[in-house]
Fold these 2 entries.
Entry 1:
Amino acid sequence: MNRERDYVLGTHDEELARLGLQHRVWRPVVLDCWKKAGITVGSRVLDVGAGPGYAAVDLAEIVGSTGEVVALERSSKFVRATEEACRARSLTNVKIHELDLMTDDLPKQDYDFSWCRWVVSFVSDPSLLIKKLAGVLQKGSVAIFHEYGHYETWHFLPRLTNQERFREHVIQTWRQSGGEPDGAAGLPALLSANGFAIRSATPHIFCVGPGDYMWQWPATFIEIYLPRLIEMGRIDQKFADKVRADLTSAEKNPNALMITPLVLEIVAEKL
Ligand SMILES: C[S@@+](CC[C@H](N)C(=O)[O-])C[C@H]1O[C@@H](n2cnc3c(N)ncnc32)[C@H](O)[C@@H]1O
């Protein structure tokens, strides 16, 4: 199996950069969530499906030298990016494991928290992931998730028919690759079945204009995923051009609005 190729969003340089922008856009929400959940100096945090390590680096700086971040990721390219980011910041409190969450064992350690963002949507068996997580988290540990709860909330006002067709292709290709876009939808049942109590569940949905930084998050996703859909043979260049043209016209309209895909924040305690 090719661990880079088999991931539906890809692990190319543009995706690595997109994940960086996505992290920066979401950083204020994420920092607030981590603070409320109790992550602080000395905390030990498991980062599940860490990507190129943008969150891992922020976590490492927060928990400091008395704390630790254990980052799990399947893509060797993303693992190397995380190693480089840690070296550049002289961070010595991040342990990185290149592994597959579905087929490998998760490293056992005394974690206080786990952090899992936009990963449940992409694994073939979310129930296995939560079972494994339950197996390595101790009583009182807190599991934090940011996952899509209702991807179809994503649309523009005035509505853009081609963007909505694009969104449907996104949903279908994620399902075809074995994932489920609304990864958060199954979490309450899975967490209950694996001995977690949900402490809070918070929807994050935004209505933004072209001048808002948040706009860049879905807009760059469109730009990156159109060539991917062409590569997969799902759409042609003509349709891609129409989606781009619609986005460009919305960006020129100062009154255009975009409702973002709903992300559900779930904070649960291991009993
Ligand atoms: C959308 S990215 C999110 C990355 C990171 N959590 C973030 O918020 O920036 C999903 C990540 O999950 C990883 N991933 C998907 N399936 C995986 C698996 N079975 N085992 C390990 N990592 C996986 C991908 O390689 C990718 O880095």
Note: The pocket of S-adenosylmethionine is lined by residues 7, 9, 19, 23, 49-51, 54-55, 73-75, 78, 100-102, 117-119, 122-123 (CB under 6 Å).
Entry 2:
Amino acid sequence: MTDQQQAEPRPEQDASARREKNLPEVIAREEAAVLRRQPESSRMAARARQALTGGVTSSWQITVPQPIWLSHGHGSKVYDVDGNEYVDLHGGYGAALAGHAHPAMVEAIRSQAGRGTHFAQPTEDAVAVAEELARRFGLPQWRFANSGTEATMEAVHLMRSITGRDLIIKVEGCYHGHHDSVQVSVTPEPGEAGPADRPAQAPASSGIPAAITRLTLVATFNDLGSVERLLAEHPGQVAGMIIEPVMMNAGIILPEPGYLARLKELLHAHSALLTFDEVKTGLTAGPGGAAGLTGVVPDIICLAKAIGGGVAVAAVGGTAEVMAHVASGEYEMVGTFSGNPLGMAAARAMLCEVATPAAYRRIDALRSRAVDGLEREIAAAGLPAHVVSAGAKGCVVFSGRPVRDYRGFLGLDDRYSHAHWLCQLGGGVFLPPWGKIEQWLISVQHDEADIDRFISNFTDFTRTVTG
Ligand SMILES: Cc1ncc(COP(=O)(O)O)c(C=O)c1O
């Protein structure tokens, strides 16, 4: 190679330099456009800040440049307070699998509201829901709660109660809600994450006692060796492991073939239990969640989000041995609103009338349409990106390389996801905010036109960024 040839920039370098120049411009332009389009949202945000802490009802509703205030949703669409319509692929952080105001959900909720929403005594719907979850997820016994956080808290308590051990293992980059035991190494920054082969136990929030954080050991996704090492270093002390079987708080990271089955064997060999946190994957990865998809049935499964069809419902399922511990009263699983009639009526409608085999076939076809369309655009634009999907969920990963664990995810440039979110919003598609962490949800009410709008916005986005 001559000196002259060496000095010439390669086409990839050119393209990368162009993207570096374009990205900040796209973000600035689109953020300004959001503020222009949503004056009423701006007014709501200003008013809300006076009495609603941080101006939102949950800190993850804070978005840049401002929170999006919605007035209502119908079918596959949501509408902001300024009257803008969006194809809703946010899906309420993965809960709105039914879409919005689904006739079966409206009828079930209306009918139960007219007959009483709360007794703190069981109703027949709770049995029907438990039976259907048992059929779908392969675990025979179920109890109910109201949020994913509650469900995973019960699972951690149960693993400790049954084994009489205090330590648990969680995976770096998995989110399991906001109770103390799992608020460890959720999205640690490079400076606090520790070495890749020995992730640190990094508190995910202030307010978590160090003494509790020390009880949560941290493993690496798709790396059996990291779990083996922790079990060997703490013989007879690990109660069990909680894991998102498909990681869905780091984009989407799929388990490698055989990983989950071998994880279960490994933990059982150490008399420790395995919990799948299927709060996100639950009904969305498929009718029987990730357990159904992979054929690996753990000792405990946690569900929430989509199972209530838009109403706050969570569930904890277990093997007969695990749940005997609850039935006998050795572990008291309680809650005033657990299995409340409104939630159970909604969950029954969701499971029996909405999340049907026909609905999953329709979602599968829409997912293929989305994935094919996005991949076509990625190839045409020569963008270093790829698409990962599981059932109704999917995301664009802005990297040419596959991501197999949190460290790979950490290296992704979040500006792409934010710019993509803004461009979709401008084109009438509402993706979940929080960039590279989240993924889309296709509901039972989406159609081909919705997916085509999503792909067309993506095409505009790639052309603007790479142009
Ligand atoms: C995998 C997972 N588990 C648990 C939770 C907590 O659920 P909730 O927000 O209903 O408490 C979430 C929330 O996003 C989640 O993604």
Note: DSSP finds 18 helices and 14 strands in the chain.
